[in-house]
Q: What sequence folds into this?
């Protein structure tokens, strides 16, 4: 099927193109995106030089584990993130499989963020291995953004020993696509007057928000590249994808993105969950796991100086049926005994299918607020909470996992 063009640009196409370029230039922004190459695997190869050049796969090692990151040597065998570990072992049986060390990855990620903050206070981490930096208006301090991009691209490998891809453009969309084009280890700068040429040959799937369903609908209409998408009129796109969806595609095909760089988003929730290698049936083992997950959540709350007023649990059974329950507390808290008691109480409200074990358990908290004032619990000594915290800080996250109501 041919491309369905709604309206060709009236008049001189060159004039229309110049107008698009002027709109992009009017943004007057410079956004940089840094993406660390095969981050978790690269950290392992950096810390263990004997692994360099070998296919390293950081993954959950149990029978239900998934791949977190694969080195480029492993990717050559078809291994990629989110792949089941069992499948990765079949594709790359000689690979080096390692469990993730998130504390170490966070340490290195903070090194990278520290470098980025030297150039702008507006650093927005997307994950441990990538971040946006708004360089708009920093020219008087650090020089032209293009020079800063080159400098950051040199400094990160020099100071961390790890390679990265860097993209620079007039907005977050273009910066991210530029760093994707620079992988692995390269630098790509897309100036405002280069945006349309840069976008044109890209597949529509590369645009934010174009998932498999949207891409399939576009392909059915003969639209495969961004240039082809840009040729479709706004009214026609809106007739296909609705007013908002059509306008978003129209804007993205022209490289238009007003999304700001937000340096630190407040946490909306904190959670921990575990998928078990064998289904759980024993009620006491299930309660013990819920208490363990509760204490991990409490550790995060206390480390980040937060209190929570909503408590949630997630239970996934062997047939993948998933049940959630939550409760709203009278006051925000980070008290370990109160939260574990609430979690176990929520568990009693979960209907149990006959004969089915539990595949996954999760505990989460929401309605977070700064721990500036704690309401003292009426029936629980707050000194006990402090003692639990000190013991777990000293002896690690496995300490006191047995705690339940009336224990300790």
A:
């Amino acid at each position: 099927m041919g491309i369905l063009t709604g309206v060709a640009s009236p008049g001189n196409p060159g004039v229309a193109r110049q107008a698009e370029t002027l709109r992009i230039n009017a943004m007057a922004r410079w956004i940089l995106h840094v993406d660390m190459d095969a981050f978790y695997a690269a950290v392992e190869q950096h810390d263990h030089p004997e692994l360099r050049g070998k296919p390293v796969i950081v993954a959950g090692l149990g029978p239900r584990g998934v791949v977190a990151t694969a080195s480029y040597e492993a990717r050559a065998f078809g291994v990629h993130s989110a792949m089941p570990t069992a499948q990765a072992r079949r594709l790359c049986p000689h690979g080096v499989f390692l469990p993730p060390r998130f504390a170490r990855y966070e340490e290195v990620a903070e090194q990278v963020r520290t470098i980025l903050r030297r150039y702008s206070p507006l650093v927005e981490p997307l994950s441990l291995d990538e971040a946006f930096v708004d360089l708009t208006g920093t020219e008087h301090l650090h020089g032209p953004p293009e020079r800063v991009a080159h400098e950051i691209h040199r400094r990160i490998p020099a100071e961390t020993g790890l390679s990265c891809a860097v993209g620079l453009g007039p907005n977050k969309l273009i910066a991210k696509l530029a760093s994707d084009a620079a992988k692995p280890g390269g630098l790509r700068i897309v100036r405002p007057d280069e945006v349309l040429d840069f976008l044109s040959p890209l597949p529509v799937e590369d645009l934010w928000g174009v998932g498999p369903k949207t891409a399939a609908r576009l392909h059915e209409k003969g639209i495969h590249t961004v240039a082809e998408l840009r040729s479709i009129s706004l009214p026609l796109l809106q007739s296909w994808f609705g007013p908002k969806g059509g306008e978003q595609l129209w804007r993205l095909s022209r490289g238009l993105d007003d999304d700001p760089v937000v340096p630190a988003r407040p946490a909306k929730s904190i959670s921990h969950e575990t998928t078990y290698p064998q289904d759980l049936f024993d009620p006491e083992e299930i309660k013990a796991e819920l208490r363990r997950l509760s204490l991990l959540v409490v550790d995060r709350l206390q480390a980040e100086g937060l209190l929570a007023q909503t408590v949630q649990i997630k239970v996934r059974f062997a047939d993948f049926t998933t049940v959630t329950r939550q409760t709203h507390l009278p006051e925000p808290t980070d008290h370990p005994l109160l939260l574990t008691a609430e979690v176990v109480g929520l568990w009693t409200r979960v209907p149990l299918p006959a004969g089915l074990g539990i595949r996954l358990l999760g505990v989460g908290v929401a309605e977070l607020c700064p721990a500036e004032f704690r309401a003292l619990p009426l029936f629980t000594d707050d000194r006990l909470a402090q003692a639990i915290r000190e013991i777990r800080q000293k002896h690690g996250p496995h300490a006191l996992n047995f705690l339940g109501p009336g224990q300790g």
Summary: The chain has 15 helices and twelve strands. The CA atoms of residues 28 and 260 lie 13 Å apart.
